Every structure is written in C-alpha cells, then in structure tokens.
Amino acid sequence: MSETVGIWIAALLTLGIFSFLYKDNPLYKFCEHLFVGISLGYYIAYYYHNGVIPKLYFPLVRQHNYFYIIPAFLGFLYFSRFVRKYAYLSRWPMAFVLGAGSGLSVPAIIQARIIRQMQGTMIDTITFSSIVMVVGVLATLSYFFFSREHKGFLKIASGMGIVYIMVGFGATFGYTVMARVSLLIGRAQFLLKDWLGIID
Amino acid sequence: MNWLARLSNIDRRMIFVLIGAAVIIPFFRPLWLPVHVTEHVKNVFDFIESIPPDGQAVLVSMDYSPETLPELYPMNLAILRHCFARDVRVVGMTLDPRGIGIGEMAIKTSADEYGKQYGEDYVYLGFRPGIVAVILGIGEDIKRVFGTDNYGADLDSLPVMAHLTNYDDISLVVTLASSTYPESWISYANSRYHQLIACGVTAVMAADFYPWLQTGQFIGMLGGLKGASEYELLVENAGYSRERKTATIGMDAQSVVHVLIVLFIVLGNIAYFASRRSAGGDA
What we know:
By secondary structure, chain A is mainly alpha-helical.
C-alpha cells in the first residue's frame, strides 16, 4: 500500500514538473519548491545524525574526549556571520578549512592532474592516435598562449587548437544530449511501467 | 510565409511532443538495435572477471543522487550482479548523502538475486561525511573511518570484514558518480595508495574523463546509459544474469531521439542559412 502511494506521489510530481514544458504554472512551482525544501531538510537531518552526533557529541559526551571542544568551537564560529559585529570570526574556521584542504589537495592534485597527464602525453610508440593527441595538446596550448600576437606559425597552430577545442565541445554536447534524453527515458519508463503498468 | 520561415518559427512545444513520442513509441515497438561494446567498458568487465572467487574485495562507491538514477542505477546493478555471480566479496558505500538509500537498494536487490548473505558475502557501510578524509582514511584503516555499517553493526562483528583493513585488501574501487567524486578517488586513492579505480559516470561527465583513461588512472569507464547497456550485455552474454536489461531497453528510445535531434539540427541550419540568404537578397 505504501509503495503504491509512493508511486502515485512520484508520478504526479513528475507530471507537475513536466507541466513546465507547456508553460510556467503554480503546479510546477509547487513541485520545484517541494524538491528544494525536502533536499535541504534531508541534508540537515542527515549531517546532524551522521556527522554531529557520532563525530562530535559521542566522543565529547560519552568518551569524554575534550580535545573535540576545539573543532566544535571552530565550527561554532561559522554562526558568527549572523551577528555583524562578530562576523569576522567566521574567517577563522574558513582559514583552517582552506589551509588544511590546500595542504591535502595540492600535492595530490599536482600528481594526479598535472604530472600524470604530462606523462600521458610523453608517448613511447608512434601511432596515428598518439600523433593526433600530441599535436592536439600543443595546438590547444598554443591557442591559450597570449604573450605573443597570433600570427605566422602561432596563428596556424592556434587555428588548429580551435578545431580541437570545437571537437571537444561537440563531444561534450553530444554526451550532454544523451544524458538529458536518458533522464527523460528513465521518467517515461517509470510512468509507463511502474505507474501505469502498460509496458513490461 | 514560405515553408522555411514556418520551420524557423515552429512552436517549441511541437518539438517537445515529437521528442516525447520518440521516447515512448520504442517501448511499445522495440527496435532491438545492436549494442557495440567499447574497450573501456570491456576493461572493467575483464578486470572483475579476473578476480578469483572469494579473493580480494571490490569496493563499490555509489556516489550518485536520485536525479541520475536512470543512467547510473542500471550500471550499478550490472556491476554488482557480475561481482555476486562470480562470488567476489563486495563492500558498498557512498560519498553522497543522497545516495544512501539508492546504494542500499542496489546492493540488496542484486545480492538477493544470487542468495548472498549480508555480513558474509557483502557489507554496506553507508555514508560518512568528508570526502577527502574518507578516501584517505580507507587507505589507513577502513574500520576506523566507518566504525559501524549502515545499520549500526560493529564492523569487527562482520565476517566479511575480517581480512579487510585498507586498500591492500581491495582489488578494485568502482565509483559510480553523478558529480566530481571520481576525481577525488583518483587524486587521493590512486595517486597516494596506487589503488586501481574504475568509474561509471553520467554521460554529461564522460567526455571529461577520457584523459584519465588514456593515462591509465582509470582502468575503465562506463559512460551514461550506453555504458550501462554495454555492461548489461557483457553480463548477460557471460550467462551471469537474465534480469530485465533496463538500460538496453532504453537505448532504442535513445537512438530514435538522437536521429530526431540530428534532423532538427540539420533542418534548423538549412532554415537559418536560407533565411539569411533571402534577407541578403532583399537588401
């Protein structure tokens, strides 16, 4: 019974969202606001029960690990933004998060996104694909080289770079169309199979 | 008004109706268009195929939210079915709080199909906040990061966790993601711990991940509904599953819509250039 009610609610909300395709209307707005509200409520409740309670409350209150007062105090300082006079205090936890985050990310990201990608461009066997790739990397980089006027060889190279960039945009657009159509297919399958039961 | 001008001023709702029809009709009249398996999908399949039964575990991180369910849920089921059919131990988790229920549904549905026992053959760890801390923490001690499973059971009490400490005991991490989570897995689990990683992503993200495939940072990738349908086909051809192939059924509609969109683009361009020429002639 609860599953049937759930399917009906989901189906009606889906149709409410699709009604925007005809024109903006109160039903669409209701569905949209409901989605935003439920998402936010879910986030707050879930982070409270899976973050604040097990990671702060239990260690502090049950295990008497008073070291946790420091992160709790830092976290609490975020709320100082609500009081104009003390709003500057919210920069402290932000500075801590930025500092720790940068320290953790910078070496890992340099390794993963720069060094390994450069290694990937250093080919050991010459094939058609590898030539296309190396030429593409150099041509695309030359397009973003703004320290010299694009004329002569640089103009040719940057022109080739534009072609590579356009191919990249085209591939991304094609994939995006596929993704959006997939979402529509998913909703159509839900409406026709789970709700109406007219397809297998 | 000539036909080209009429084409340029067509009501957008007409296009929506045509797209809707192109999606719905193939469900009633399937075309059964062939699915070609690409190398990147085959690589993921072959890797899981090479894991010995009851050997190292596969960690499936279901890092996606309900709005991307049509693309990622079918590939999630296909990968889990493959693991369970081959008696590979599965550790499920999510980095996205919106994916907790989905992950639980996927792992339970597929495990039940193969009669797998919770706690012995698989475990669902659920969600812990802090993406970087969780990924790095698994590299040290997975039990310290999660402590309990999704249902509050102590991880030390579950037989499946007996010989599972960190990435050394995990053969492959499969991240199924609707956001940039695969980049975090690469940056922290692969770069720091040399953990092998495969990803299943939405089609929107797929193009961005090809450079990572070329460098070998991902061993393979399933991109969108197409990737899911390819994996479904591989699992079925290997005789591991006879369940309904949700993604493959959807690919007929996908192909019809693509043809229609290509047609719209061609017609739109013809109308645009023709109207520009006639405007130039008038001048």
